[in-house]
Write a structure and sequence with these properties.
Elements lengths: L3 E4 L2 E3 L5 E7 L7 E8 L6 E6 L5 E3 L7 E6 L4 E6 L8 E9 L5 E3 L3 E5 L2
Parallel strand pairs: 2-11
Antiparallel strand pairs: 1-3, 3-8, 4-5, 4-9, 5-6, 7-8, 9-10, 9-11
Length: about 120
């Protein structure tokens, strides 16, 4: 069983930055893709970004050029650097670890990000 613990959420003004971290309780095998998702009130969880063990990344169009995902395989941690935040980025952000076969998925508990002046 893998436990994922997010940190780094909070309140930030428009145009500001935040860095989210997600630490896994055990070593994450290379067959797992790590990612960040977010959920707006009343809506389904949506993809923000993913990163493979080999550091290949994928981003939602809405965050391209503003967010950067990275992965430290030695520390079993995934990060999400969020720059140029706007009010539309306000959501609960979830860390995810998913086996490339899609057969196993783990979620963190979520961390609130609020962008407001």
């Amino acid at each position: 069983q893998v436990q994922l613990v997010e940190s780094g959420g909070g309140l930030v003004q428009p145009g500001g930055s935040l860095r989210l971290s997600c630490a896994a309780s055990v070593s994450i095998p290379s067959l797992y893709i790590l990612g960040w998702y977010r959920q707006f009130p009343g809506r389904q969880r949506e993809l923000v970004a993913t990163v493979t063990y080999g550091q290949s990344t994928n981003y939602a169009d809405s965050v391209k050029g503003r967010f950067t995902i990275s992965r430290d395989n030695a520390e079993n941690t995934v990060y999400l650097q969020m720059n140029s935040l706007n009010t539309e980025d306000t959501a609960v952000y979830y860390c995810n670890a998913k086996k490339i076969t899609g057969t196993v998925t783990y979620w963190g508990q979520g961390t609130q990000v609020t962008v407001s002046s």
